[in-house]
């Protein structure tokens, strides 16, 4: 093999690429996200362009139809549009009130009701106790309490008015006849009435009010001094409420009246006036359709597509392709030895043995070991200790045949600490067999200490690691040994960290 020519083992290349599966997956995910973001940006631009085109088209149509109308006809259409717009707003507000407010979901004649009654006593003037009642009525339902109560009804009714469902009042009031003397103390009853859609909700809301009652009572005691609050009754029952019945009837009547007014707003308009009128009310109609069909894509109103499976798949495939190409280029362009056959070709010397897996990969990820098993080519993973023992005997036997007593084990510092550990293990085993062995960090011609080691050495053995040992360094080491008349017996190959 010439120095410029390198043979590539496709199976080894595939093994190397597959062992980079983590980085490949990361690259695939990055490009998939990037591709989807590009799709979102493109979709937003298309939606914006469609809206702009539609708006310009509407404006152009309005200008064209207005040229066919007199000023009086235009004024009639715009008056009809204002009537339609006004009634559309009334229709929308009352419809939302009927659908999204919890009080409108109650049956006025059968309302699940919870009544909490508290007796309040204070040794003070009657007016002060009246003020305490007023504070309970006005401030017991604070913002946090209202949010907690609304949450009981569910997210749909988040904007409901809690004060329509909970009524706080002291008995009789008006003339303060609720305040009576009890055991030399002024006393009165505070009633808290709770409406809900069923008994379970009533009980949940009652617990919220009880907790709030305790906290707020402590706050009032800091202002008015000590007073006594006792729970005297808690009752669940079905009730009726004419006020709610009137509210629901009024909302339904408002929806019906507004709808009729909207339908009749265009009465008496000519055909050209109706064209102009329809163009004016079109945005209101489209808004109503979007509210009724939320989440439904239509051909009229394009929506932004935030997840595009097609672009995600393209991103995944592009990420995999780029990552595979990148690692293939690195594999081909790097000047390190890739397999045992290449080590033989570079040194023209035999390989005594190859440690297939280093200590790190023996403990590696299950997926890594599974990939490695695909490329074992029928070889069984030999125990490292036994493998080094066999190699040491083979090296010692060859050295004895050539009357060599002092060997150099060459391992380059760039190969890593584990490779040096293997070299030291091999040196120890050779020493046990009676050989004098020295480990050196590579053979460099301008290093005086290395030259001295070569002067006393009878032979050398190279310990190389795949994907780390540089071909040029190996050739330079072989050439240096030849110049120093030191015979190189062969190589010991350590498997790559990468595959």
TrEMBL record:
Q: Name one GO cellular component term.
A: plasma membrane
User: Which segments of the protein form a coiled coil according to its record?
Assistant: none
The keyword Transport appears for this protein: no
A GO molecular function annotation here is:
protein tyrosine kinase activity
Lineage, top-rank taxon, reads Bacteria
Which InterPro entries does the UniProt record give?
Bact_polysacc_biosynth/exp (IPR050445)
Spans through the membrane: 20-38, 311-333
For the keyword Transmembrane, the answer is yes
- Key words of the record: Membrane, Transmembrane, Transmembrane helix
The name of this protein is: Capsular polysaccharide biosynthesis protein
**Native organism:** Roseburia inulinivorans
